Prior knowledge:
The chain is mainly alpha-helical and 125 residues long. It has one domain (8-115). Helix content is 62%, strand content 0%. It contains 5 helices and no strands. It is globular.
Amino acid sequence: MYDNAYSAESVAGLGIVFWIFYFALIIFFIIVYWKIYVKAGKPGWGCIVLIYDFILKLQIACRPIWWIFLMLIPVVNIVIAIIILFDIAKAFGKSSGFAIGMLFIPIIFFPILAFDSSEYTEIEH
């Protein structure tokens, strides 16, 4: 009799492939964020320390550090994250369209920001 069930080996193989891809993506984004932070004159290793990572993003976006507390408020944190994303794009001389790309297609736009020739300048609010 023909059985359509997947074998345990094939399912396990898919799991292994998933985890390899997942960890490769994490390492890729660590490299990308590291490069962005170094371009902004911040320590690259800060991208792997949870709270310090957000503090560095606030500094790059030229926003006050107390905004970190706004990230604890549901829904407000989404708005704050988007504002910071737009400010980071602006600090590197990018347009609002580029910031929208960073929001919706980060796997393409963050590496562009990291590896292009744009330079960081502090912005006024």
